[in-house]
Amino acid sequence: MQNSIKPPSRGQWGSSFGFIMAAGGSAVGLGNIWRFPYITGQNGGGAFVFVYVLCVLLIGLPLLLNEIALGRKSGRNPVGAIKETGGSGFWQTAGVLCVLVCFAVLSYYSVIAGWTIGYIFTELINIPVDFEDFVQTPLYVIPLCMLFILMTISVVLGGISGGIEKAAKFLMPVLFLIIILIAARSVTLPGAGAGIEYYLSPDFTKINGKVILSALGQAFFSLSVGWGLMITFGSYLPKTNNVIQSSGWIAGMDSMVALMGGLMIFPALFALLPGVSPDEGPALVFNVLPRVFDQIEPFGNIIGGMFFLLLLVAALTSSISMLEVPVAYFIDERKWSRKKAAWTIGIAAMFLSIPSSLAAVKGNFFNQLGFNFFGRQIAGFFDLMDFFFGTLAIVIICLMLSLYTGWVKNVKEYASELAMGAVSFDGFPKKAWVFFIKWICPIVITLVLLNMIGVFGEPGEGG
Ligand code: PHE
User: Fold this and answer.
1) Where does the sequence pass through the membrane (predicted)?
2) Which residues line ligand 1 (CB under 6 A)?
């Protein structure tokens, strides 16, 4: 079973650069620019950033390699990969969870992407928007979200390589440049110092269980690890590819953009909106950035419009990969056509996005919906989805996948898979990776999960 040949119909990446761009395009998205700053704000600033960087290096990167190894070795989608390598039904549920997570997150991710589309226009035409009013107007928000899902479907229908990959190769670097420009403006505003300090000097007393779970969850969200995405993309890799080098690029790019994202927001927040608290949640970026654009003379609004346009592209390169995972599953395992799979799943995501859109409207049912998870209060449909799918399920998937390769299978085979095409991985790095997958990753994730359900006391705080 294990060494069976890939079916010839499966494609392969043309070049390492193509793979890095596709996987990097998936990684860099709203998670870096919208989610990272607000999660940082909710978890105390610098201390969170510190824990986040550790999570990326010590847990995220080994697991990224783990997924790529599983994908390249099996040449399959997340469920197929575990089946193909001889995993039982229990382990296959990790693959099923991957498919579910991608579908569920796509639905609320598109809501934010829809806001982004709205902001392209309001910036360009230079109309001041009140964010609170905007998101509470379903008449704008729902159609914009649907439009975004339609764009996602149309790309997935046509295959990824032609249009979007070419476009992303050009547009992503432009996005990086604009981010640097905005961050430069932000840090030079009078009064920016307090924000820089909040963001970059860690107050270690703020680190608790909740901060660690959030940092770990954010690392997985942002790196696209724990979604089966890297299994799927890894399955299109030739054995000659140096996956160690590619992963370094992906993680490096992703972290740089996230760190720069924070550098755009916090200095500007403290300088321009001293009354607004950094922990205000998903609205953060949308409240702060338009104020920064107002401070860029001349053409601030054009730069603002361009920024949101490029953010839309970054979101699209992520959402297509999110849709691609369930689509690949239905094509491989259920023998659906690509057309049927993309439309069916896309339209289902449209329906599921509606309650997430409505969750922003104060006082309505989806806004009021609450849930108490072992003392952690989760409010609103949107947060519910982000907690259960965008955080908890991903962490569980990562735990299962590390136990699977680390203990159920012969982990050395997977280490050798990684070393294929990457000679420098042999020796110490290989041993270190095995140690991380067998011990560090499962232990840390288990502790975080146990802490979340209150095993170490005080679930509300620790969760
Ligand atoms: N990593 C993406 C982001 O940061 C989200 C994503 C996860 C996209 C998994 C695809 C698959 O926005």
Assistant:
1) 12-34, 46-69, 90-117, 137-158, 170-192, 212-237, 249-273, 302-329, 341-361, 381-404, 435-457
2) 26-27, 29-32, 221-222, 224, 227, 229, 318, 321-322
Q: Give 237 Cα–ligand 1 centroid separation in angstroms.
A: 20
Residue located nearest, by CA, to atom 2 of ligand 1: 27
Q: Which domain holds residue 57?
A: 9-452
User: 71, 98, 65: which is closest to 227 by C-alpha?
Assistant: 98
The CATH number that applies at residue 137 is 1.20.1740
- Shortest CA distance to 333 belongs to which of 162, 158, 98, 157? 98
Residue whose CA lies nearest to ligand 1 atom number 8: 318
The string of pLDDT tens digits covering residues 120-163 is 999 999 888 899 999 999 999 999 999 999 999 988 887 656 65
> Would you say residue 329 lies in a domain?
yes
Residue 39 and residue 5: Cα distance in Å, rounded? Answer: 43
Q: How many domains does the chain fold into?
A: 1
315 CA closest ligand 1 atom index? 12
For the record, the structure tokens of 344 come out as 């069916």
Q: Is residue 161 part of a domain?
A: yes
Q: Does some domain include residue 346?
A: yes
Residue with the smallest CA separation from ligand 1 atom 6 is 224
| 461 within some domain | no
- Rounded CA-CA distance 232/327 in Å is 11
For residue 162, what are its two tokens? 């032609």
Ligand 1 centroid, distance to 180 Cα (angstroms): 21
Average pLDDT over residues 394-400: 96
pLDDT digits 0-9 by tens, 26-72: 999 999 999 999 999 999 999 999 999 999 999 999 999 999 999 99
Tell me the residue type at 205.
Answer: T
